Amino acid sequence: xxxxxxxxxxxxxxxxxxxxxxxxxxxxxxxxxxxxxxxxxxxxxxxxxxxxxxxxxxxxxxxxxxxxxxxxxxxxxxxxxxxxxxxxxxxxxxxxxxxxxxxxxxxxxxxxxxxxxxxxxxxxxxxxxxxxxxxxxxxxxxxxxxxxxxxxxxxxxxxxxxxxxxxxxxxxxxxxxxxxxxxxxxxxxxxxxxxxxx
Length: 198
Fold this sequence. Notes:
The longest helix is centred in the first third of the chain and has 16 residues, at 50-65. This protein is an all-alpha fold. Helices cover 77% and strands 0% of the residues. The model is unreliable at 1-20 (pLDDT under 50).
C-alpha cells in the first residue's frame, strides 16, 4: 500500500505541472528606458498585479523597437481606445477573445481582409461600413460564410466580373437573387463557387 501511494505521488509530480504565481517586478529591476516609458505608473507600480507589470514591461520593450510611424499609430489607437465607453471596450475585448480562439488560418485570413479594408479610400471604407449597417443579420451571416469559403483571389475575380457587367446584367442578377428562395440562393452560391474555382 505504501509503495502504491509512493508511485501515485511520484506519477502526480511528473504528470502535473505546478502552477507558480508570477513574482512581482520591482521598479528598480526595470531598465532605464523601461522606467522612462513607464514613468506615469511609477507611484502605482508596486500595487499592480505581477501579470499586469509583466504585460506593461513587454509593451515598453515593444515600444523601444517601434519606428516613429508605428509609435504615432499606437498613440492614435490608444487615444481611440480611451475615447470608448466601458461597454464598447468590453465588446472589443470579447471580439478579440473570439479572434484569439480562431484557428491560425482563419486569423490570417481576417488579418488579410482587414489590411485590404485599410487600403481602401476613406470614402470607400465609409461606403462599405454603411452597406454592412444596412444588412439584415441573415445577409451578414451569408456574407461571412461567403468570405470564409472563398479566397481573396476568387473574390477579386468576382468583383472584376461584376464591374465588367452591364447595368442591365446587374439589374437582372439582383432581381433573380431577390426572387430566389433560400434553397435557390444556396444553389446559386454553390454554382458561383464552382465557377470561380475553374
